[in-house]
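Lab channel / #folding
Pinned by the channel admin:
"Please post every new chain as: sequence first, then the structure tokens as a reply. Keep commentary short and put observations after the output so the thread stays searchable."

First post following the new format, from NK:
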Amino acid sequence: MTLSTMLSTMGVGMLRTFAVFSLTLLGSLPLGMIVALLKKSRFAPVRLFISGYISIIRGTPLMLQLLVWYFGPFYLFGMNIGNWRFPALIFGFVVNYAAYFAEIYRGGIESIPVGQYEAAEVLGYTHTQTFMRIILPQVVKRIMPSVTNEVITLVKDTSLAFTLAYQEVFSLAKQISASQTSFMPFLIAGIFYFVANYVVEFAMQRIEKWMDYYK
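Reply from TO:
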């Protein structure tokens, strides 16, 4: 296999990796905020359920969770999982990362001084207006470094898609390496992950700098 053929084949895997990465972010970032707000709910059963969900997700490997989401519907409900692989993969990633983002959001929300809530109430702001106009912009600024770390981790965690036989870049690298007895596919995959993480880090740093309104 020539280098150009190898790159062409692995290019398909790179696009699939990007699909997992982007769909996970699109789903987990807003879901994480919902989970964080639910954890601060006034209703104890809701707080207990959310705390249990976060504990289970953070306490078990992502690989195991992906297997549960894929095979669970078959063993529990007899569902035909022939076309369920990709949805189960995305669902597993989103649910997993939403739990981590939720804890980041929660930490950011709780770091805001109570006096700001009281001042907003005096000025006549509703709870929603206070959160959206005063609290959330500060929270986003404060949590950017932690969010950046999680996004970088997500880039690397996409390689776990091989658990469900989804052929992303790492899976293809292993297959080609085994068939061609070559280390080159792993090198290409490594460069891909490095470049992807560099782009993520650069973009997040630019966003963080843009939000540094004190300067």
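NK: The chain has a mean pLDDT of 90.
TO: also worth noting, The chain has one domain: 3-210.
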